Amino acid sequence: MTRNNDEGRLELLQGTLDMLVLRTLQWGPQHGHGIGQAIRSQSDDLLKVETGSLYPALHRLEKRGWLKSEWGVSEANQRAKYYRLTALGKAQLLRAQDRWSLLVNAIGRIMNPARPNEE
Amino acid sequence: MRPDDRSLDEEIRGHLALSIKERVEGGEDPEAARLAALREFGYVPAIRDSMRRVWYSRGFDAAGALAQDMRIGFRSLLRARGMAATVVLTLALGIGANAAIFSVVRGVLLRPLVNRDENRLIYIRQSAPGIGAENTTFSVPEIDDLKSRSTTIAAFGDFSTVDFTLIGLGGEPRVVKAGVVGGSFFDVMGLRPVLGRLLNPQDDGPKAAGAVVLTYRFWSASLNSDPAVLGKTITLGPRTATVVGVLEPSVPYPADTEIIANVVTSPHHLGATMVTSRAHRMTELFGRLAPNASLDDARAELTAAHAAMMRAHPEAYTGKGSVQLKVTTLRDQIASPARTILLVLLGAAAVVFIIACSNVANLILARSVRREGELAIRAALGASRAALRRTLLAESLVLCGAGAVLGVILARPFVAAVVRYAARFSVRALEVTVDPTVLWVGAGLAIAAAVLLAYVPRLPSAGSPAGLGLASGTIRLTPATNRRLRVFATTQIACSFVLLAGAGTLLATLVSLETAATGYDTRHVVVFDVPTSATGVGFGDATVMGFYHEATRRIARLPGVDDVAVGSFVPWRDAGVFGPPVSFTVDGYEPENGEENPRAGFRIVAPHFFAVLGIPMIAGRDFNDEDGAGAEPVVIVSQSVAQRLFPNGDALNRKMWWTDPYFGSRRQPRRIIGVVADADDEHVVAGPALTVYHPFRQIGVASRLFVRTAGDPYALVPAVRRVVRELAPDQPVERAATLADVRSAVLSPERLNAFVFSGFAGIALLIAVVGVAGVLAFSVSARTREFGVRLAIGSAPRHLLAQVISEGTLIAAAGIVAGALGGYALARTAGKFVEHVQQPGVVPVVSAAAVLAAAAIVASCIPAARAARVDVMQALRSE
Predict the structure, then answer these.
(1) Which of B34, B362, B624, B720 is most buried as measured by Cβ atoms within 10 A of its Cβ?
(2) What are the tens digits of pLDDT across the range A7-22?
């Protein structure tokens, strides 16, 4: 994969990065680089997380007790810090998901008011 | 848990490695892949910082840098141990003294009393400054008048002091000082019991049962806080009373009593004299302000009421005394005697602190000159001025912090000493304990000192080439630095001079007090308090007379006793207990127009009194056993009375009588049978004493025993006590002391003042001498080369010696002049705000200057000798 053109890429909504990180780690421990790549590939290259936002976010989540970190060896044969979801983190992810669905739903109602009787 | 910088770096490296690997696998050239990965990552230090910032606050980082500097400072100070130790010790003295004195000032002057709504509590005092009566107290009719004319005072409380012989709380019978109060007293004072109840209006009146409340100190110290004391019956002189409660810890005012009793316990308080005589003053008066009334309102109203009262009863108020009323809050009243002395002490401590700081500033300045090279190199390498300043601040924080810790440790014994000292002036000092204030004051002073000291040295500017030249390690003293050193040394001398002159003045006062002629033979007379009836009644009681007569007869026969007599008044110790002098007149004396009758002290003595105390008889005869109740009333007068009223020298056989309303209307004439030399028993500095002595057997009770001996006076004490106890087993025999020791005890506040102040001055002198010597030594070592050259071209060593000494003398002289000017201004200013500021005399000031000048010259001798011994060759090679 070479450098992508930034056109067509979406800005992350304020406050959603934490949720995306937690969600990504649901599948198992991962290092910062892997988390960034996962978000990118799962969003079909629509979302790209800046390292300048990702790493402080990882440390913030760790400080709040939602993540735990340990050192491991990466595919590049180098020491890398792996982050893992804690029980607190899982609970937080559920809360964030609920709020997110509510938010999407609410915004959807406003943006598409034409089909009020569907539900 | 918190990642450190290394782990953050490693995490970033891991990310970059993965990113590069991915690109290389995608077919990129490794070098291009590395650059691309870095570009994609962003500015590494900024991202690492934002990761750090999650875990560490900005303040943490700044503190970390300062801590790092402090570690370095600590290590570099270990290499200059002598200097560091001097600085720490000097600061510790300054900080310790200030912290200790400030805690006492806070405890005594600033802290509120425990009394409920203590700011509404006022103290009312009547005084007659015209006749030297600071506190005449009040009589019952006066209190009634003030009560009836006042609306600004919600309630009045009264308190009078009497001595009781107390039996029934264990131990020997003894005389206790007791308060006698009305039922409103405790409510007005706003105090609560810790046990039982306090006295209330139901305890008033002659029909109530005797009731006493114990003060907390007496209960806890003498009775081991025994709760079983409640309900006990005790004997107070002729009456009995029940212990009903224990008072909470509170400031004992107006008197430090052990018990407080209701009026019925004191027969005297129920007597007609007490209740009806306007001139019979023995009661202190307190009040609680009415709601909405201010202290000023109360003052205005009470002053007006008092003036009206004086107009209505002119006979009871001497015009000469210019009787007046003073209304203050109780807190101010309690603090006032200690205010001046504590503020003076605080000032002295502050001066010591200034001296300590100047000295430390000098040492630090000298040190910073030595390390100018180091600072110049750091500046050249790009250290910001803030970073250099931080280095200096870190070092002075280490020094001052150590000084503060040591100072606070020193403050504990200081506080104990100052409390014992201040307790002589204000009972509140006894409540002062070492509390966190000491820590705060210590820390505050240390930080203030550290910041000041960090700004004393000048920083080398990065651009100046002179700075780098210094890096070779030679010392170069710039004129500016030299000036600063001298200014600090001069400050020390000036401040020390103020303290020394002050201490000298106090010492001079003390010496003149201690050596003043007293009119008594103080060393061979031992006095005892032997109160038979400790409530002041029993005038002329025959059994009491018999007891004293027999006791003196038996004591006179003891081996070693030369003579013995009974009197009413222990010189100095009993000062004030008889109140102000009372007015009298003699036959043939016509007061001039507007003049009032003369006033004299009223004393009662037994035969031999004058012989025992060494007061010479000038004319006539002493009292003898014939001068009894049925015989002709006679008196002996002091020489001043005789000279003033009988200028022709014909005092003998003339008549005198008391005219004071205190004596009622029976104006009994008494014949003067003798004249004795003046002996001022009220004042430690003897003035002319107008005294009229009455024979013990004619007028009443005198309960002080005076024993004269040629041997060791204190060796007689057990024998005298045994003899008295043989006659009356329950009789207290107390406070045995020679007259010299009585006087010495009365003078002890003056002695302590002089002692404490001399201590401060001594510390100041020591620091200042070290300071001058240090400045000169430094200046000599900085000028080694100069001295070498001068010696090489033929200067005589003694010229160099003389020059350095004259530099020291110049610093001392400048300091003394500055100190004299400053001290003069200070004394002038203080005189405007504080009463009775003693202006220093010539002798103490001159001696202080001489001491300082001598000390400065001695201090400059050592560096001067070093200057004269400079090795020429070495000095010339040194640069």
Answers:
(1) B362
(2) 566 777 777 899 999 9
Nearest CA to B805 out of B864, B866, B862 is that of B864
Report yes or no on B124 lying in a domain. Answer: no
Percent helix, strand and coil across chain A, each rounded to 5? 50, 15, 35
Return mean pLDDT, chain B. Answer: 84
Instruction: Give the Cα separation of B829 and B295 in Å (integer).
Output: 28
> Binning pLDDT at 50, 70 and 90, where does residue B839 land?
low
- The parent domain of residue B23 ranges over 5-56
Which chain B residues have a beta carbon less than 8 Å from that of A5?
none
Task: State how many domains chain B has.
Answer: 5
Same domain as B98, residue B240: no
Instruction: Count interface pairs A-B at CB distance under 8 A.
Output: 69
pLDDT tens-digit map of B234-267: 988 788 899 999 999 888 888 778 899 998 888 8
On whether both B724 and B617 belong to a single domain, the answer is yes
Q: Is the pTM of this model over 0.90?
A: no
CA distance linking residue B548 with residue B723, whole number of Å: 11
Could you give the CA distance from residue B272 to residue B262 in angstroms, rounded to a whole number?
Answer: 17
For B138, phi then psi, to 5°, come to -125, 155
Predicted confidence (pLDDT) per residue in B148-196, tens digit: 988 899 999 999 988 888 888 877 777 888 899 999 999 999 999 999 9
SS percent in chain B: helix, strand, coil, step 5: 55, 15, 30
Chain centre distance of CA B44: 65
Chain B residues touching chain A at CB-CB below 8 Å: 3, 7, 10-15, 17-22, 26, 28, 36, 40-42, 46-47, 50-51, 53-55
The rounded mean pLDDT for chain A is 85
Q: How far is A60 from chain B (nearest CA, A)?
A: 6
Residue ranges and CATH numbers for the domains of chain A are 16-110 (1.10.10.10)
- Quote the Cα angle for B54-B56-B59, to 5°: 130
Is the model's pLDDT at B147 over the cut of 60? Answer: yes
Paired with B528 in beta bridges are: B705
Report CA-CA distances (Å) from B144 to B283, B290, B579: 12, 18, 21
Contacts of B3 in chain A (CB under 8 A): 59
- Is B457 a residue whose pLDDT tops 80? no
Residues B623, B711 within the same domain: yes
Contact indicator for A58, A39 with CB cutoff of 8 Å: no
| B551 is a domain residue | yes
